[in-house]
Amino acid sequence: MDTQVAILGGGNLGTALAKGLARTEEASSKYDVTITRRNADLIRYLEDDGITVTTDNTAAVEEADLVILSVQPTQIEDLVNDIKPVLDPQQHILISTMAGVTDEDITELTGSGFPIFRVMPNTAAAINQAMTCVGKTPHKEAEEKVIELFESLGKTLLINTDLMEAATVLGACGIAFFLRYIRAASQGGIEVGFHAKEAQLIASQTALGAAALLLDSDNHPEHEIDKVTTPKGCTIAGLNEMEHNGLSSALIKGIKVSYEMIEKIR
């Protein structure tokens, strides 16, 4: 029998998770997905991929094995109050994608006894290329099920829960940071002669190739950089100009500021 997954919150991230679980035969053969949203018409198109779309959180949870809480942190209390009558610690594994909401916060709302996991995927889950950090808990049997679910959506890393805010910035916000780099590289490509679509294709595929080199080799980035920098060459000239204008410093500062923002709202 397929594992029943309820995604409560059909926003950008919840929708990305649903799409990824329906996208490949491996995932769709393991998981039956139901996703909820107040205005279900906004995500009704997901039904074309075999995903159940509903406004009824209680009905979604009642049949589920894995319950993914993917709403805004300010909505979690109302959501738990809605589904609490049908929550069962013997049946449900609770998975939270909410930044700044701790296991203790959720336990206080649901009551004790539930295996609760904090996870931080990103929107690349929609194409099964997510990076998902999973917070460690004592619930090892349930942990295996959670990791298996998110492995079907990309890569996973088991981390200490005190690193979840850092994982949010580096992995989830990181999608936007890398996309902004690709946009800038595309604009540079236009300046040196390419049409916009051509420049974006070259920049996007080059970024994909650079990431794939590191994932395949496990090398440090500088090792791969050295392979394309030659004495008095154009690569080192470009790199040095970018660094003189604060490329690395700006990225590091941006990550730190994002992290500090999460800490403020906790």
Whole-number total of structural domains: 2
Percentage of helical residues?
40-55%
Largest sheet, spatial ordering of strands: 3-2-1-4-5-6-7-8
CATH architecture of the largest domain: 3-Layer(aba) Sandwich
Distance between the termini: 39 Å
What does the average pLDDT come to?
A: 96
CATH level-4 homologous superfamily of the largest domain: NAD(P)-binding Rossmann-like Domain
Largest sheet data: 8 strands, mixed
CATH fold name of the largest domain = Rossmann fold
Written as H for each helix and E for each strand, in order along the chain, the element string is: EHHEEHEHEHEEHEHHHHH
Oligomer: single chain
Secondary structure: number of strands? 8
Structure write-up:
This protein is α/β, with parallel strands linked by helices and 266 residues long. 51% of the residues lie in helices and 15% in strands. The protein has helices at residues 12-23, 25-28, 57-62, 76-83, 103-110, 140-151, 164-191, 196-217, 221-226, 234-244, 247-265, and strands at 3-8, 31-36, 52-54, 66-69, 93-96, 116-120, 130-135, 154-159. It has an 8-stranded mixed beta sheet, with helices on both faces. Helix 5 links the parallel strand 5 and strand 6. The longest helix is centred in the C-terminal third of the chain and has 28 residues, at 164-191. It is elongated. The two termini are 39 Å apart.
